[in-house]
Automatic annotation (TrEMBL):
Organism, as annotated: Mesorhizobium hawassense
Recorded coiled-coil stretches: none
Keyword Transcription regulation attached: yes
Gene3D superfamilies cross-referenced by the UniProt entry: 3.40.190.290, Winged helix-like DNA-binding domain superfamily/Winged helix DNA-binding domain
GO biological process: positive regulation of gene expression
GO molecular function: DNA-binding transcription factor activity; sequence-specific DNA binding
Entry keyword set: DNA-binding, Transcription, Transcription regulation
HTH lysR-type domain residues: 9-66
Protein's recorded name: LysR family transcriptional regulator
Length: 308
């Protein structure tokens, strides 16, 4: 057991604490660590004795961490994330490929791109498990940078000092609207067409949405943000329900093929560059390289919808 700076506390005890916090129960932690539940309980009691604080409060069968526990958990979790990252780097340097991969991507790509890519990947390679981490584009970058994901899907700009990437596809702005909407009669949507339309959109901080809202304000019209979501991809359900229209881009809009919505180009448009990326200098093993190739293939597949 590795003791930490003569405190009497071992890395194993902190690993057990971490799993109990993450799972909410000693039983689940024991299963994750492949040890017995009594062993988990014993190590938690020893750790409480060494620290002189209560680490958990029981509530309806769950273990709720105390404030002191969460302070320790944050540092402990960061430490083990770094250790896992080091383990992956060592394995990469030794040429040892894992049969489990983790991919970070915004939620919207779980609607179509990722299921198609995973299906194609499994047909080509033996994959034990695939772990998906979602989030905003900055959060996706953090997942990869901090080692929680092997590769990620995002759009440029990314920091070339810490990431390598492979181009996946480009995209331009579009608007999504429910079937039967007046926009169906138009070939191109322009800012003046948006006046008076309720918007179902991602929070306004997103660059593409700011651009469109600024275009409305330039014409003296205030945007009507009727539905606001914080995850890219959630807005399409509200559009399909007839509660508003939404700005997007051609790549993201391709993920909505199963929804009863239509899409039209929006002008003026920006150009977005999507990439599959990983930590700079990391050697991609056979499975990861195949995963990158498959993601790029699926990203570049042409749209099946006539309105795209």
């Amino acid at each position: 057991m590795v003791e930490i700076s003569k405190t009497g506390i071992t890395l194993r005890q902190l690993q057990i604490l971490r799993e109990v916090v993450r799972s909410g129960s000693e039983r689940a932690a024991a299963k994750a660590l492949e040890i017995t539940q009594p062993a988990v309980s014993q190590q938690i009691r020893i750790l409480e004795g060494l620290l002189g604080v209560q680490l958990f409060v029981r509530d309806k069968g769950r273990l709720l961490p105390t404030t002191q526990t969460m302070m320790l958990f944050r540092d402990t979790d960061a430490t083990f994330v770094q250790m896992e990252r080091i383990a992956k780097t060592v394995a990469s340097l030794k040429g040892v490929d894992s049969d489990t991969i983790s991919i970070a991507a915004p939620y919207v790509f779980s609607l179509r791109l990722l299921p198609e890519a995973f299906h194609k990947l499994r047909s080509r390679q033996q994959v034990a498990a695939i772990v998906l981490k979602s989030g905003t584009y900055p959060e996706v970058a953090d997942h990869v940078l901090e080692g929680r994901a092997d590769i990620g899907i995002a759009r440029l700009p990314l920091d070339g000092n810490v990431f390598d990437w492979c181009p996946a596809t480009t995209a331009t702005n579009v608007y999504i609207f429910p079937r039967g909407h007046r926009f169906a009669q138009k070939d191109i949507i322009r800012p003046e067409d948006l006046v008076g339309e309720p918007l179902a959109d991602v929070e306004p901080q997103m660059q593409s949405h700011l651009m469109n809202e600024n275009a409305l304000r330039y014409m003296g019209a205030e945007p009507h943000l009727a539905i606001q979501v914080d995850v890219i991809g959630q807005e399409v359900s509200f559009v399909a329900a007839g509660l508003g229209i939404s700005s997007s881009n051609t790549f993201a809009a391709r993920q909505y093929a199963s929804f009863p919505v239509e899409v039209r180009p929006f002008e003026p448009s920006a150009l977005y560059h999507y990439v599959v990326f990983w930590q700079k200098g990391r050697r991609l093993g056979t499975l990861l390289q195949e995963a990158v190739d498959v993601l790029v293939e699926c990203a570049q597949d042409g749209p099946e919808r006539p309105d795209l």
